[in-house]
Amino acid sequence: MSAIMKRLGPAGEISGMKEGFVVKLVLSAMLALLNPLAFQAQEAAAAQRQPPPPPPGYIPPPLNPGGVRLETRRLADGVYALLANTPFTDNSGFVVGTDAVLVIDSQFNGQMGRQVLDAVRQVTDKPIRYLVNTNAFGDHTFGNYVFPAGTQIVASRRTLEALKHTTVGELRQRMAPTVGNDLSVFDGVELRLPDVAFDEEWSVDLGGRRVEARFFGQGMSPNDTVVYVPGARVAWTGNLIFGVGTIPWAQMGGIAAYRQTLDRLSSSLDVGTIVPGHGALAAGDAIATYQKYLETVQRAAADAVGRAVSFDDFVSTARLPAGFDIAPALVPLMTGFHRWNLQRAYIEAGPKP
Ligand SMILES: [Zn+2]
Asked: What domains, with CATH codes, occur in the chain?
């Protein structure tokens, strides 16, 4: 796992930093009595050096795959989404050509990986020659090990490097909050690394069906990959774009970088249907909605910093911005993501140390 992912990893790790951060805030508050603007600068600089603790109301994404069923949805000739029957657990998918099959994401463990294999076998007996991992998190990669030995696993170079520098134990610890600390989810999991790594683009012809894997830059994670079927205008977006009625989660920070990544995505691919890594199928215009949301958050942060609104006042009771149609069942989760994004945007907008 890269250094930055270690610093900005999921909740368990970050909450350990809370104490130091609070001490810094108390010291900053004492300074504020002397000079509010100095407090502002100090606070933003401190936040920039180490990530803040998760904001009030943040809840880890609920990813426990126990009891989850994947529904096969045909999107075009040979193009299938595998959609989880719970609101935010992982989706997958597969593409069938005349020669071979390509699968997108192997799910959270061997049991779920086998469910993907079974779903493919309900549709075709052609060989599963390729599996693409859309990022390095366990919920997208831990099922790799149940795929046939002849399946080539494809990932961006950043995903491969992240996986090379971690272990199942480390990922298990980091991801435990997302499964309600139910460690049985990880039983039997073996880390199987990608065989093929690409820098920006990889493509394959499955026989009458071309599939591309693209890396446009960091987004939710440092290594989000999009899988695209040009003939069907279908894109699997992993964690870069969640399902309909969501907002992005700049989990690793970098609101500006996330926007640039989406700019590259929207100018490179003509997307009609999005199969998100999490959430319900979305239309291609979700990309523009995500761009607009990130711009809104950046503007709000710049305004707050300009008016010397404190970090806590800006973040802790913030509600989802108007104009974004959030799925009712996901409002608590998205509110936490929104406040997390506000933290990162505030830090980015603040004075540089
Ligand atoms: Zn994910």
From this structure: 70-292 (3.60.15.10)
> How far is CA 20 from each of CA 4, 26, 181, rounded to the nearest angstrom?
19, 10, 25
pLDDT at 10 over 80: no
Burial class (CB in 10 A: 0-12, 13-18, 19+), 27: middle
pLDDT in tens, 292-321: 999 999 999 999 999 999 999 999 999 999
| pLDDT at residue 49 in the model | 60
Please tell me the distance between residue 259's alpha carbon and the centre of ligand 1 in angstroms. 19
The Å distance, Cα 206 to ligand 1 centre, comes to 26
* pLDDT 10s digits, 272-290: 999 999 999 999 999 999 9
Span from the CA of 290 to the centroid of ligand 1 (angstroms) = 17
The CA 137 to ligand 1 mean position distance, Å, reads: 7
What is the whole-number distance in angstroms between the Cα of residue 31 and the centre of ligand 1?
A: 41
Phi, psi dihedrals of residue 24, rounded to the nearest 5°: -60, -40
Reply yes or no on whether the pLDDT at 46 is more than 60. Answer: no
pLDDT tens profile 164-196: 999 999 999 999 999 999 999 999 999 999 999
Give 277 Cα–ligand 1 centroid separation in angstroms.
Answer: 6
CA distance 213 to 210: 10
Distance 239 CA to ligand 1 centre (A): 5
Ligand 1 centroid – CA 220 distance (Å): 9
